[in-house]
Amino acid sequence: MKIEAMLWILVLISVALAIVSPKHRARSLLACGIIIVAIVAVVIVTKRGEVPVPTSPAIAAQATAQQPKHVDFERFHIDNLDQKDPEAKHRIANSEIRFEQIRAEAGSQPGTIGTVSARLYNDSTRFALTDYAYYLVVQDCVKSTCTVVYDQRGWAPASVPASQARDITVAIRDGDTRGVPVFKVIGTANITLSPTDTRSYQTTRAAGS
């Protein structure tokens, strides 16, 4: 602090005068004491004005939570429909649906993937598939080594009658920075798409919305 430095200089000058000039020693020592008290006051005021840096885990977690995250509105919609038709989650097992003919569609920049297309099969012989959850994994295979460079989970609506199939498209979500791709494939893309949950609502989604 500049003020503290100046006050300490005045203390040194007062001490020097007290040593050199016995005539003014009393006044110099008095001035020295007053300056020291002023320094202490400045230090106290400065400390009170400082903003403490949060270090507790709770505050750190709160700061992390403020970062932008993907909000799955489809998941919210599913939760609302589940309240009206709780049995929907039990009508079609995960093993009764599958993704085939999985292929990547190029993004706007070289080496990027914009969407992933596939054919969704409903092997249930009784119920129509109205919603499904998926897990998408993208591997970048260079020579004989494949590395996962991206993964994504989500929910999506569907309308696949029993023992039929429909084509679906999964969009790769944008990153935190607009125009900057989430990942780039250097070698060959190896994509896996797996079902993680199913729904078969007795009423249509339009009626349940």
Task: Describe the fold and architecture.
The protein is α+β, with helices and mostly antiparallel strands and 209 residues long. The chain folds into two domains: 2-49; 86-208, Immunoglobulin-like (Sandwich), CATH 2.60.40. 33% of the residues lie in helices and 33% in strands. The chain has helices at 2-20, 25-49, 57-65, 73-84, 205-208; strands at 97-106, 113-122, 129-142, 145-160, 164-171, 188-199.
Helix-strand layout with pairing:
Layout: H1 2-20, H2 25-49, H3 57-65, H4 73-84, E1 97-106, E2 113-122, E3 129-142, E4 145-160, E5 164-171, E6 188-199, H5 205-208
Helix pairs in contact: 1-2
Q: What tags apply to this protein structure?
A:
alpha+beta; 5 helices; Immunoglobulin-like; 6 strands; 3-stranded antiparallel beta sheet; 209 residues; 2 domains; elongated; single chain
Structural class based on helices, strands and sheet pairing = alpha+beta
CATH class of the largest domain: Mainly Beta
Quaternary organisation of the protein chains:
single chain
How would you describe the shape?
elongated
Please give a quick description of this structure:
By secondary structure, the protein is an alpha+beta fold. It has five helices and six strands; from the N terminus they run ααααββββββα.
